[in-house]
Amino acid sequence: MTRVVPAEWARVPTLTGEVSPNDLGIVLLSENLMFGLPGWWYDPEVNFDRADAFELIRSALLDFKQSGGGTIVDTSGITLGRDLTLCSRIAKLTGVQVVAATGFEDENTSIPTHFALPGSNYFAPGPFDPKRGGYANSVWQREIPGNFYTANGGTKEYLMFLFYNEMTQGMVAPGFIRTKFKAGIAKTGCGWDHVNPVEERSIRGTALAARKAGLPVIITCINQVRREFELLVDEGLEPDRIVIGHCDDGRAIDLERDKEFARKGAFIAYDRIGWEDSSLSYAISDERRAEMVKTMVEAGFAEQIVLSCNAVACTITGPKCRHSFSHILKSFVPRLKKAGLKDNAIDTMLRENPKRILTRR
Amino acid sequence: MVMTVKGEMRPEELGWAALFEHILFAFPGWENDPWVDFNRAQVTESAVASLREFKNAGGGTIVDFNGTLLGRDAELLANISSLADVNIIATTGFSGQDFTPGHFLFPGATRRRDILDQQAGITYEVQRLDADYLAKIFYEELTLGMVGPGMMRTSFKAGVVKTGANWDRVTEADEIAIRGAARAAKKAGVAVLTTGISQAQRQWEILLEEGIKPDRIVIGRCDDGRAIDLERDKEFARKGAFVSYNHIGWEDTSLPYCIPDERRAELVKTMIKNGFAENIILSCDAVCCAISIPQPKHSYSHLLKSFVPRLKKLRIKDSVIDTILRENPKRVLGGK
Amino acid sequence: MSYVNTVLGTIHPAEMGITLQHEHILWGPPGWEFDPEWWFHYPKLFQKCLADMREFRDMGGRTIVDASGINMGRDVELYRMISRYSGVHVVCSTGFWAGAGLYNYFRDKDIDYLENLFVREIKVGMGNSGAKAGVVKVGNGNFGFTEYDERIHRAAARAAKRTGAAIITHGVLGIRRQVEVFEDEHFDLSRVMISHCSDNTGLDLERDKEVARKGAWAAYDTFSITNNWSWADYATYDDVKGDLVKAMIDAGLIDRVLISADVNLFSLGWARSNPYSGKTTVADGLRAIIGQFMRLGLDESVFKKIMIDNPREVVPIY
């Protein structure tokens, strides 16, 4: 159900201010300005030089802009290397619009113990119940004045507020800072083999928050897409607010699946473009990706497809990324054209679809 | 009674006492030097070993002559004293303008001190850096406890007061420090140990002006190679003060302030022959952990294991040596 | 020569004095910093911790061992300030509180990596602070001995062996398995402090005696978590803890007994004045401990043995 919203509300929050959806230009919906697993700062061997990072990100964004790019959506989420002050400064310098995300992915890499330990957020007058993994009849209270009291902390509602506040008040930064930058998208995910209880709470909370704030959700674990989709829809999120990410993950290519979700109204993201290193299990060749995109377009799904690179400008931990954000424009788009795709189809995928996704509802 | 870092003791209990020694020796600011390798556990072990040697040779007490500023750690002193079972008396006071940090160097300077009052909020008082200001600092170190790191006062009290001056003259900053030390010593009834022999006369004058009695004053470093003067020493002794040859063991004559122990022994013998045995103090200025000066090779026990035999060889009697090592410290520290 | 690594530098073991060998200035599973609900007012935190530690010192306490380990709340800069301005020696732990407490970055690290990390924290310093850790903390969570737990226990044993440091454990339900792993690593059990023998979910005097006879230390270290205050399942009445200690003494095992309070001066990500830790100051913990000694009629020499001499024997690095 689409609602008519005032123009102001439809504005997309970026790190350099709010912009009209009409001004987004070419959008890459799933990228990383920096990437690192939380806890990296405790490792004395990890060499993070802030000045170097600044330069790496700056040149990547400039390159993107000069290749014709307009907006980048950084999907690091809360814990995987988001640095708002650094990136907002760079965005301002380069003129690239950067939209940041809230949310978690799979527990192992992105949900710290604080959010995962059942019962970590409340004290319990009731008895300990191992089956529930926590305390029965728990009531959770905090001492921070002026805030709400909520029942059953460590639940989907708790995480809902965590994400919702990032969307409406501003995203958090180290040092107890709530910045003024609001999230423009939420992401969610789970482990490869199954959705565990923590991840379920996280997915549900994400759906609730996104629905309330009118924002889209991008799914990051393609192997559990059915379950993730189910959970999101169960919490009332509409399919056309859902982006299925990593559909070009080498371990789970399935165009029939993609078409099925596209028919439901969801968006299909081929967002690992440029990751061709065959030593990585999830990589496939760009040539194959181009084939897949062509097939989907010819099957009539051009208006459901988004393209992105998931490139990393500054890698703190993780595999080295050999390509940059501009790869899509400099390498993949020419490939698509050579495969016979028309300009307006490409425009639809790079401009129109992201615009519809990022416009608040 | 005499205040040691372990508490008050009767002067008779001090035994053989060396009045000018140092556990650490470092100029203020040393903590900011990243290449200084200070290992507290190591220093504890070495100090305890050296003091045990001193004790085994007959020693009972040392005075850590660092004053407030030259690398004094009250907790460390107390711990070492307990472990080695040797009495340690700590000092309060300054050592001369060249070794005094800027905060204390501008006599007459006024400073505003904020006072937090539960009722009135924050008010302030204006204080002047003068002799009374410093006297209060020293007096509180003698009676409430020596100051420690972290803006805390430890529970260990100093037992004597030290004064010093620059080599060439007693500066204004030195003068307020000397007067302050004297006022604190007078009020608390403790002894005053001086250093900086070149300005001993002027320090003496100021101390007397401030009402310190000669028999509570020890004129230190009379064996400084740059200013040997037995007439001066006899003059002080005649007036009732104690004269101290306390650089025993510092024999490297390439340094202008050192003289060989042999010569020191002669000086001591001469003073004894002139009838001043009851005014002599001996000590080594030994340092366990020297941070700001070259590490001396001799230790606290050098006094007893090397110098005392030298004196005996000069046919100074055991009873005289005992007077010098036991009775004289007892009288000057204990007072009447 | 043995020495103790405190957060302000090394001290001689003789300076330790009355020591609480299992405490936490800050404790909380990682990730709370991303959660605005659990943000707090830093000056108030500092004020509270400083006041507590000063009170502890005024009561005669001299040293605490902070058993938080890596990424569980340990804040070297804060600890330094608190130690400097309270005069209490603070010994930090390296290691991880439990496998469940590993920050995501560390979850796929192997034993060698973890061992080298722990060694570095003891020999070179924690992060780039220059302050060195003094003991190795390692433990298992409440739901069995996981693969992560096994990894960190082995790494801890190897690191402790290399550096001469002692180990403090966590996780009463895994004690037997912990001892097994340490024995398998040929680690000298007299360098292991087995924590939480007074945890209600795992009270077992016979096990404690067995463990002590093998040479390890049995620590009755939760004197701040009592039923008078807490509904936590692992709370026990102080008298129960006291009786356990007495039983160990009567069994001739005073040489293997340790006592502490397991206080969190400030909980990160946990409700604060909450019934989990009814006594949230080390001074209160010491008071409770003294109370037990008085109740049991144990004289000063026993107090000195357990609160000064025993920690002095096990905590330093050899």
How would you describe the overall organization of this protein?
The complex is a heterotrimer of chains A (361), B (336) and C (318). With 361 residues, chain A is α/β, with parallel strands linked by helices. Chain A has helices spanning 50-66, 84-94, 107-110, 113-116, 156-168, 197-213, 225-234, 255-264, 286-298, 327-338, 343-358; strands spanning 12-14, 17-19, 27-35, 71-74, 97-103, 128-129, 134-135, 139-140, 150-151, 172-173, 177-178, 185-188, 217-219, 242-244, 267-270, 305-307, 312-315. In chain A, the strands form five sheets. A nine-stranded parallel β-sheet of chain A has the order 16-15-14-13-12-5-4-3-17. In chain A, strands 1-2 form a two-stranded antiparallel ribbon. In chain A, strands 6-7 form a two-stranded antiparallel ribbon. In chain A, helix 1 (50-66) runs parallel beside helix 2, helix 5 (156-168) packs parallel to helix 6 (197-213) and helix 6 crosses helix 7. The longest helix of chain A has 17 residues, at 50-66. Chain A is globular, with a radius of gyration of 20 Å. Chain A starts with 11 loop residues before the first strand and ends with a helix. Chain B is an alpha/beta fold and 336 residues long. Chain B has one domain: TIM Barrel, CATH 3.20.20.140. In chain B, 35% of the residues lie in helices and 21% in strands. In chain B, strand 4, helix 2 (74-84) and strand 5 (87-92) form a beta-alpha-beta unit. In chain B, helix 1 (40-56) crosses helix 2 (74-84) and helix 3 crosses helix 4 (172-188). The longest helix of chain B is centred in the N-terminal third of the chain and has 17 residues, at 40-56. The radius of gyration of chain B is 19 Å and the shape is globular. Chain B starts with a strand and ends with a helix. Chain C is α/β, with parallel strands linked by helices and 318 residues long. Chain C has one domain (4-314): Metal-dependent hydrolases (TIM Barrel). Chain C has nine helices and eleven strands. In chain C, strands 10-9-8-7-6-5-4-3-11 form a nine-stranded parallel β-sheet, with helices on both faces. In chain C, strands 1-2 form a two-stranded antiparallel ribbon. Chain C is globular. Classes of the chains: A alpha/beta (361), B alpha/beta (336), C alpha/beta (318). Chains in contact: A-C, B-C.
